[in-house]
Every structure is written in C-alpha cells, then in structure tokens.
Amino acid sequence: MKSSKLRDFTAGFAKFMEVFMWIGDALLVIVMITAIIMKDALLEMYSTDAAKLSLRTTVINAESITEANLMPLIIVGGIVALALISLTAIMFRNVNLIFKTTNQESPFAEINIKRIKNIGYIAISLPIIKLFSNIIIGFIARDVTIGVELSEVLFGLIILCLSQYFAYGASLEKDVNGLL
User: Fold this and answer.
1) pLDDT mean over 72-101
2) What's the structural domain count of the chain?
3) Considering only Cβ atoms within 10 Å of each terminal Cβ, which end of the chain, N or C, has fewer?
4) How buried is residue 94: exposed, middle or buried, by Cβ count under 10 Å (0-12/13-18/19+)?
5) Alpha-carbon distances, residue 14 vs 20, 92, 95, 130 (angstroms)
6) Cα separation of 161 and 149, whole Å?
7) pTM given for the model
8) What range does the domain containing 49 cover?
9) Left (φ > 0), alpha (ψ -120 to 50) or beta: where does 146 sit?
10) Alpha-carbon torsion (130, 131, 133, 139), positive or negative
11) How far apart are CA 98 and CA 85, in angstroms?
C-alpha cells in the first residue's frame, strides 16, 4: 500500500505516545521507590492537617486514608498505575506497528489482524483492571467508589469486531491472489 502522510503522522504520534508512556512508567517506579524509602517522612507529612486537605482522589474519600493504610494504598495504586500505563504503551506500540506495516504491505496482513485483536483485548482489560483495583483499594481504605467506564469496554468490543472484518478481508485477499 502506498505511503500516506496521515498514516505516517499517526504512526509517529503513536510512537511518541508509546515512549511517553514508558517514560511515565519509569518515573512512577522512581516515585514508588522513593515513597517506600521515605515512608516515615511521607507518613509524618500526611499526618498534618494541611496535607490531608490537599489530597485529592477519585477512588476513595481522602478522610478514609489513615497513617496505617497510606503506604499500602500507595503501593497498590502504584502497581495498578504501572499496569495501566504499560498496557496503554503496548496498545500505542501496536498502533504504530500497524501503520508502519501498511506502508509496506497489505493492511490485511495476518500480523495486523493479531495487533488489532491485541488492541481490543487491552482496551477491554483496562476497565476490568480499574474495577478490581478499586475493590482492592476499597478493602484497604474501608471506603470505595466503584464504577466501570462502559465506553472503554465498547471501544474494545468495536476494535475486536474490526479485527474480524480485517480477518475476512485477509481471506478475500488470499482468494483473489490465488485466482491471479
């Protein structure tokens, strides 16, 4: 397939986002290690009223965070964030590779179908991971707000359906090539 500026831009942007996500993962690991090393200072800082007032979260109420559960919440939250950022980076990598591949061969290449399926599975797994992490965090903090972003699930299902269309297109392309 002939190269296109739109595909080239999208591939480049996806690569930028992939690298950005991996850098975010690395920085998050550094922050988590620093938080664990400086646990006492962090707990002392959190025990002041000013720190409690400035803490914002969408999963649990700030009032339910205590000195006893602060570090477990940081560790669980960090691990979940690492997983979500890593999966997003992998999703962007697949997007980049799809567009790079289509500049050299058919968009219906078998590898592209696998990449599209991977994007769909990852998109569906993200809200599921968020749901389970909210439940775990809720047990730790003894307060929880649970919700699922159905648009993320729908996005994943749409991508999986598109992968079926690409698989059908690949079989048609194979049949046409067999006739020539």
Assistant:
1) 93
2) 1
3) C
4) buried
5) 10, 5, 6, 23
6) 19
7) 0.83
8) 5-179
9) beta
10) positive
11) 20
